[in-house]
Specification:
Blueprint: H1 2-12, H2 25-60, H3 65-117, H4 121-126, H5 131-173, H6 175-181, H7 186-222, H8 224-229, H9 233-263, H10 267-285, H11 290-310
Helix pairs in contact: 2-3, 2-5, 2-11, 3-5, 5-6, 5-11, 7-9, 7-11, 10-11
Length: 320
Amino acid sequence: MREKCMGILKKSCGSFRSIFMHSDGFDKLLMGLGFIGCLGDGLSLPVMLLFSSKIMNNIGGAFTIDNFSRSINKNAEVLCFLAIMQGVACFLEGYCWTRTGARQASRMRSRYLKAVLRQDVGYFDLHVTSTAEVITSVSSDTLVIQDVISEKLPMFLMNLFTFIGAYVLAFAILWRLAVVAFPFAIFLLIPGLMYGRALMGIARKMRVEYNKAGAIAEQALSSIRTVYAFAGESKTIANYSVALQGTVNLGLRQGLAKGLAIGSNSITFAIWSFMAYYGSRLVMYHNAQGGTVFAVGAAICTGGLYVFLRSYILSLQIYF
């Protein structure tokens, strides 16, 4: 029933926006504030790198004591202000998305139950095999959507804004190094996409295997007197263990895919080594500053890693 309902939902509401169909005006306000929070949280890292590069350049530059102290104090004050703003943005991101996710999930449960109770009696004879199935659908399906709204969507937005802000910063302050290092970000993008694709396929297969095991357990418990009368406990346990073995094998494959994807982040060290070499050439022959080279390198590597984290949103397609 669950797969059938989700298939109907996918056909009738093919857009990702369909998960927000139960939002009201206050929920839209919360989502707007949460979007602003994700924007501030995502851009906080590139802005911090910008002012940190200025502090490093001032420390390594030839300034008088007064100018040096004045510049350092100014940048430090800006960083303190940014810390306060990031705290506010993170609060909006966490509170607003969690609040609206709970509100929409609660409204969804209520409407789901009303829709079920409005059906004719024949519907329960044809489509509903047990009361537990309806309760499970109400709880589990809405929890999935609540998790999407409360956690996965704001995480995706934050990572997206960090990626965009990091690369815009890199091209703005030292475009020569950014142009040369930008192609290396592909080596950070590919593992994330491969992991997301593998995760989706494995998770779908794991759901099928768990349904098979659940069917065996449900059949045994529903006719427990017959199982006990014919001494079928051992056979039922053996069949259930065999059905679960498929999920174990899929879990091993999932762990291998995740290990390879996360282990591929070691490419960042190779990217850093190249940018250290080319950045030193820019310092010697193009009057670049060390703090700027460091900020661009951190922006390129961090932005690429956040591209990898964007694969986290691909897990949404496991359910939609």
